[in-house]
Amino acid sequence: MMWSKTYSKRVRGIPADKLWKVWIDVNQWHTWQPDISHAKLEGEFEVGNRFHLKPGAGPQVSIEIIEVEPGRKFTDLTRFPGARMYGCHEFISHDEELEVRTTMSIEGFLSFLWKKLVAEPVANGMAEQTEALIEKARNL
After folding, report:
1. For residue range 47-61, what is the model confidence (pLDDT) as tens digits?
2. Which residues pair with 101 in a beta bridge?
3. Whole-angstrom Cα distance, residue 120 to residue 5?
4. Backbone phi, psi, residue 59, to 5°
5. Which helix (H) or strand (E) holds 131?
6. From start to end of the chain, where are the E strands?
7. What is the structure's pLDDT at 76?
8. Cα(126)–Cα(2) distance, rounded to whole angstroms?
9. 51 with 40: CB under 8 angstroms?
10. Contact in structure between 14 and 96 (CB atoms under 8 Å)
11. Which one, of 8, 10, 1, lies nearest residue 94 by Cα?
12. Which of 23, 31, 38, 117 is deepest in the core (most CB within 10 A)?
């Protein structure tokens, strides 16, 4: 069984390419996401590459980029013993507005455990993370 949670916000006056520039600059995530101590991308922001992320509370994790549609969408995968957690980050155009949507999901036989330990706390921070992303992009 898969669990997922989505947060979405529509904004005006920010082009997707500005938001995308903030998203793919993984090494700077700690400057606008207060719950991240540091993040380090190995290589370019492309499918198959990984980044290492150290949340403020908890151990460092290795996250694989599994899907990239430049300027529009990326999906990452974190593997835990008995579970896989996906983060899907999208920019969807609606006429004059841009929808910023994040979906966290987790599956696997131990997903109930990792949902409580990691996925729910991450999902509960999606609204603040989205606001911080928008603010950072506005100031570029």
Report:
1. 999 999 998 777 899
2. 8, 90
3. 8
4. -80, 160
5. helix 126-138
6. 3-12, 36-41, 50-55, 61-69, 73-80, 83-94, 97-107
7. 98
8. 19
9. yes
10. no
11. 10
12. 23
Cβ–Cβ < 8 Å for 118, 105: no
The amino acid at 20: W
Extract the tokens encoding 78: 């974190």
Rama region for 106: left / alpha / beta (φ>0; ψ in -120 to 50; rest): beta
**Edge-to-edge, what's the strand order for the sheet holding 36-41?**
3-12, 97-107, 83-94, 73-80, 61-69, 50-55, 36-41
Domain boundaries, the chain: 3-138
Is there a contact between 86 and 106 (Cβ–Cβ < 8 Å)? yes
Q: How far is CA 55 from CA 34, 77, 96, 122, in A?
A: 9, 16, 35, 10
Chain centre distance of CA 51 = 12
Domain 3-138 bears CATH identifier 3.30.530.20: yes
Q: Residue 57 is encoded by which pair of tokens?
A: 């509370």
Q: What are 102-125's pLDDT values in tens digits?
A: 999 999 999 999 999 999 999 999
Structure token digits, residue 12: 């005006």
**What is the CB neighbour count within 10 angstroms for residue 101?**
17
